[in-house]
Amino acid sequence: MTGATTFRDAVRDALAEEMDRDPRVILIGEDVGPAGGVFQQTQGLYDRFGPVRVIDTPISEAGFVGIAIGAAMAGMRPVVEVMFGDFLTLGLDQIVNQAAKVHWMSGGQFRVPLVIRSAVGVGGATGPQHSQSFHAWVAHVPGLKVVYPSGPADAKALFKAAVRDDNPVIFFEDRMSYGAKAPVGGPEDVARLGESAVRRQGSDIALIGIGRMTALALEAADRLADDGISAEVVDVRSLRPLDVEGLTAALRRTHRALVLDPAPRAYGAGAEIAATLQESAFDWLDAPVGRLGMSEGPVPFAPALERLVLPDATRIVQGARELIGR
Amino acid sequence: MAELDQKTQLRLWRDMVLIRAFETRLQTLFRAGRVPGLTHLCTGQEAVAAGTCAALAEHDMIASSHRGHGHTLARGTPPGPVMAEILGRATGLCGGRVGSMHLFDAERGNLGTNGIVGGGVPLAVGAGLAARAAGDGRVAAAFFGDGALNQGVVLECVNMAVIWTLPVLMVCEHNGYGEFTASDEVTAGDIRDRLAAYDLPVEDIDGMDASVVFETAARAVARARAGKGPTAILARAWRFSGHHAGDAQDYKDDAETKAWRARDPIERLRARLEADGVPAADLDAIEAEAGARVAKAARDALAAREPDSAQLLQGVYA
Question: Using a CB-CB distance cutoff of 8 angstroms, which residues of chain B are in contact with residue A58?
Answer without folding.
Answer: 156, 159-160, 163
